[in-house]
Every structure is written in structure tokens, then in C-alpha cells.
Write a structure and sequence with these properties.
182 residues
Length: 182
Amino acid sequence: MGNIRVLDKEFKIYISEETIKARIAEIATSIREDLADKNPLFIVVLNGAFIFAADLLRETNIACEINFIRLSSYEGTNSTGKMKNIMGLDKNIEGRSVVIVEDIIDTGLTMEYLCKTIAKSNPAEIRIASLFVKPGKLQTDIKTDYKCFDIDNDFIVGYGLDYDGVGRNLKNIYKISETEQE
């Protein structure tokens, strides 16, 4: 499959489902080696990270708990930089190993906010697993313990990531066509 249309924009294939799943298997092995005996709590950031988290946790295959939170900082194709805590953490995390599972770290502001908020509950450690990181857009010094891909500043959809709520169900990752970026 080459180009696709999502709402009013054209996208072209960027990363195949097979490539994504192979990379997820690699980081799942690292998580398993690092945290197998710690019964970690995976905190999945909704909505975008749900597909990544499902595949990652099946591959990780260790005793763990999963919790979901929902934050938002996007409108259209741009990050607003303002966090909205819509649905919060409902587990006691004091003394726990916590892994935040995110779809994409763009500016890093959302992740910085989330780490600071979670740290107030005194976990033993906070680790970050992200499907994508955009190093060229980072505005913070956030450390990603487990990441699948560093990517360019292009806007992407698929595999849980959306454009105004559409495109999350696409199996591959698509990036916006050059003609749409102008």
C-alpha cells in the first residue's frame, strides 16, 4: 500500500507493520531482562499508545500490572504544549517500578509533566518506553529507556497514532506527504 488519504491530508508509507513488530520484540526482551523480578506497573498513555502497549506487553510476557491514563496536548497536527489530565492513575505506585508507555515523544513536555506528576507518588523508579521519539523537536532532557524508533519531524499516523481522531487503526506508519507540509 502506497499513499493513503486521512481526512483532508495525503500520507505515504513510512514504517511497515513488520518492522515495527520486530523492533517491539527487541525492546520487550530488554524490558523482560531488566524488570522480570519486579512486577512492574505499566502506565499506558491513551489514546495513542494502546496498540503499541498491547503488542509490547504480549512480547514482554512478565508478571506485571497495567493502568491507563489519558493526557492530551495535540490539536490537529501540532502539539499545544498544554497538558490536560483527563483520566488519572488509580493504582498505589509507592515503591513500585513504573514503566510509562507512550506512542510518541515529540517536544517531551507531556512526558516531563507526566514523570514529575508520577514522581510525587514515590515510585521506586520510573522508566519510559516509547514507540517513537522526535529528537529534532525535543525541548526537554527526557531519557527514554526503551524506544523503538527515532524519527524526523514529519507528522505520522497509524499504529495507534491519529490525525484528528482518524487513522489509529492503520497497521503501518504513514507520514504526511511533502505536498501537505507546505
